[in-house]
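Course exercise 7: structure representation. Students receive a sequence record and must write out the corresponding structure in token form. The form below is the worked example handed out in class, using Uridylate kinase (238 residues). Read each field label carefully; the graders check that inputs and outputs are placed in the correct fields and that the protein name is recorded exactly as given.

STUDENT ID: A-19
EXERCISE PROTEIN: Uridylate kinase
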Amino acid sequence: MAEPVYRRILLKLSGEALLGDADYGIDPAVLRRLAAEVHSLVDRGVEVALVIGGGNIFRGAGLAAAGMDRVGADHMGMLATVMNGLAMQDALEHEGVFTRVMSAIKINQVCEDYIRRRAIRHLEKGRVVILAAGTGNPFFTTDSAASLRAVEIGADVMLKATKVDGVYSADPVTDEGARRYERLTYDQVLDERLSVMDATAIVMCRDENMPIIVFDINRPGALASIVDGENVGTRVER
Ligand code: UDP
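STUDENT ANSWER:
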């Protein structure tokens, strides 16, 4: 097998990626499949940090729209990401992969605090690090947390998992003429308001020159293809 082209990756999984066919919560079968894919990367010596969203349980904006105070709602959203992180840790440990959950908000009896140097040390020791609770601040998203952490831990690339195999010029489900971009610049994504990640996350990656690959997490083997250097999904870079 070829040498991986990336030494350290940050994989952003939305809460939705854990849903499977359900409307709410976590599908254990999906979790097992994702854990197995991450395991195969670890076996190849790739250092893996995960940022998991919480949209399968709570989203702050949704709760606020229903009348809740936004800050409290975002706290609930962040706690949802911790729950997803614990579920993913369990699935990875069933695979025999050493894993640490680190939270941006202190919940010491549940998981470690996020401390950058410690996170990097875990990665160097071959442990998967699950970075939970987003940035720890309300009004942000886990996409922004993913770009921030990718830069902080010195990831070679940030992998943004979605339900389609990249970024399209239009919705590929409804528009036959939609075409997939193989490559985009950060400014194109911002100017054309392409739905890759929120603008805060894109600007962070742009300013720190962190490449992003948007890919279909439901395609088995996609992660392995990416670390093999294959042309998968859409690459966003300078
Ligand atoms: N959240 C937050 N600050 C952060 C990251 C997340 O307040 O830095 C909250 C916010 O309410 C958000 C929820 O956590 O709606 C879940 O995160 P997100 O919506 O990014 O999850 P995803 O869409 O990736 O499943």
